[in-house]
Amino acid sequence: MQSWFFAxxxxxxxxxxxxxxxxxxxxxxxxxxxxxxxxxxRHDAFRLRYRDTAGTAPVQQYDPAAPFPGVHALDVRTLPxxxxxxxxxxxxxxxxxxxxxxxxxxxxxxxxxxxxxxxxDGSSRVFFALHHLITDTVSWRxxxxxxxxxxxxxxxxxxxxxxxxxxxxxxxxxxxxxEQRAYWEELLADFRPDEPERAPDGPARAExxxxxxxxxxxxxxxxxxxxxxxxxxxxxxxxxxxxxTVDGGRxxxxxxxxxxxxxxxxxxxxxxxxxxxxxxxxxxxxxADDLGTSLCAVKESLRAVPDRGLGFGPxxxxxxxxxxxxxxxxxGQLDGERSGDDDWRLVMEDAGEAVPADNASGALVSVFAYxxxxxxxxxxxSRLDADTTRTLARSLEAALVEIIGHCTARTAVxxxxxxxxxxxxxxxxxxxxxxxxxxPAGWFDMTEIQKAYLVGRLxxxxxxxxxxxxxxxxxxxxxxxxxxRSR
Length: 487
What we know:
The chain has 487 residues and is of the alpha+beta class. The protein has three domains: 2-151, 2-Layer Sandwich (Chloramphenicol Acetyltransferase), CATH 3.30.559; 186-420, Chloramphenicol Acetyltransferase (2-Layer Sandwich); 445-487, no CATH class. It has helices spanning 2-7, 29-42, 86-99, 137-151, 163-175, 180-187, 213-220, 231-247, 291-303, 312-315, 386-409, 426-430, 448-458, 473-477, 481-485; strands spanning 17-24, 48-51, 59-62, 72-75, 111-117, 124-131, 205-210, 251-258, 279-286, 326-333, 345-347, 365-372, 375-382. β4, α3 (86-99) and β5 (111-117) form a beta-alpha-beta unit. α8 (231-247) crosses α9 and α8 (231-247) packs across α11.
């Protein structure tokens, strides 16, 4: 992803940030500052700097002398208007935007920290703005958990794999798997970019929707029983159907963002490491006439991606060929598994302008989805015209609700080949949901090998390796449960 970033021609590359707020109880500013200082010392990514950024091979390095950036402080009671009013909201937005301007990729800083207090309910906010080169959304949770531990005086334990070590491991991973290039070439063989030479020139537009709690619960759990799916299977099938509504196409290519922290070595542990680990890779979304078959086709397409796209960047890259201009990113459950202890938690409140409008990524449509407070939120950022953007978002919501309903109503499991790719023994099979309908004693189709074996028994063939027997297709084709009962 860092290679992709430097391949772009951003108007303001120093202002490509991720910013977020952590809601906390009332905090002592000095104690918070000490905890944040320890947090910055803990994570090497805060000291990453970049040189030769205008060339074809930028250099990333650590600056061991990088100073602590300090902690901004704001009493929100000093802002104009009452808390939550348009005046208040606008003033807070401008302040948090100002705090994250002026980053310097070569000399630093590449982050801004802040303490907001004076809220009517007695709570505080801890503000983070981090240049995207040093962070991803998984890092938000890491930083939030580490900060709370440090603030409470708890030890964090040993550090895991550094970002530098991980980068080297990914390069070695790609060097050992040159055959993956053929997979990516085949996947993009039927990709037909629409006027790839013309960058999107329409104004940025956004549409969003939020699922209710019941649909979100089903999307996170019950809906996956029917086809043994994951959440991205359902979300991307819904996106494919929405795109079909807009342009009539049955197959679409999408650039998918993944967390990138794949298991590529037993000695590597990046579960507590801050950095931009994100992968960005194309996927193919093939649709069929019926919903169930479409779900299975998209699921199989996604399962075929080697190691969730980890090798695409180092093996293929983002410079030499046109890539899909539709992006999708599911950020996960940003506030984690909510419990009764909500004293410290990520909140999706306005944290200022993280990326200015003139830093266009080249995407025509970007879809972001995440879950907070038990509800799925989905946003469509688009440079299509207003009517098309609105139609796309509404079609996406309708398709997602339809998919959730279809999956939760289905009683039998429909497996696909990828479900058995990793099966090596009985323990793996028992981990799969039982493939039965509502009536376990009811009739259901036999497999071909079962038919062949039973025909041999009925025909007085020697019982043994079924492969030793020869049967006619006429006999097996006429097989029915009723016929078997009559014998």
